[in-house]
Amino acid sequence: MIDIEVRALEATLFAAEEPMTPHGLAAATGIENVKPALARLAALYEGHGIELVERGGRWRLQTAPDLAHILRREKSEPRKLSRAGIETLAIIAYHEPVSRAEIEAIRGVQISKGTLDALMEAGWIRPAGRREVPGRPLTFATTPAFLDHFGLASRRDLPGIEDLRAAGLLDPIDLVLEQQLEVANPDEGD
């Protein structure tokens, strides 16, 4: 027999339009401490076609990864992210909170306002406050939707340089430059 707390969480998560925080679940269900009930619900779904997952501190029910291909539907992407958009998103993810000027300094070129707008429209970045410096520039950070879209539990799950190299995602010019720096400064690595 499933207890009422687990059933209440299950119903709330099933009806939710987006992932929910423990605080939001507690408010919706009236359960004071939802974490033990979430653990029981996760155990209940273990090995089933649906699983309970946490991404960025938010919980949701989703199709088990090994069955996702059954439900995959072809859909057209209304707009692809430009190379500038991908670079900007990566800079924000790895350096957040980061201002527009800092993004431009890292990229080496100016970014158009449309690039940031496209990332905000996708729900992957958000304004994260202002720096306490002259001009008080606006800073940007990633959102829980970014983590959810890319299947990350937290920013710590972003791939490191070794992961990117192993996946073949570094430009050959980057590898050549890195090798040249190692040859030029052989004692710095020791």
From TrEMBL:
InterPro entries: ScpB_csome_segregation (IPR005234), WH-like_DNA-bd_sf (IPR036388), WH_DNA-bd_sf (IPR036390). Gene3D superfamilies: Winged helix-like DNA-binding domain superfamily/Winged helix DNA-binding domain. The keyword Cell division applies. It holds the Pfam family SMC_ScpB. It comes from the Bacteria. The keyword Cell division applies. Keywords: Cell cycle, Cell division, Chromosome partition, Cytoplasm. This is SMC-Scp complex subunit ScpB. It comes from Sphingomonas natans.
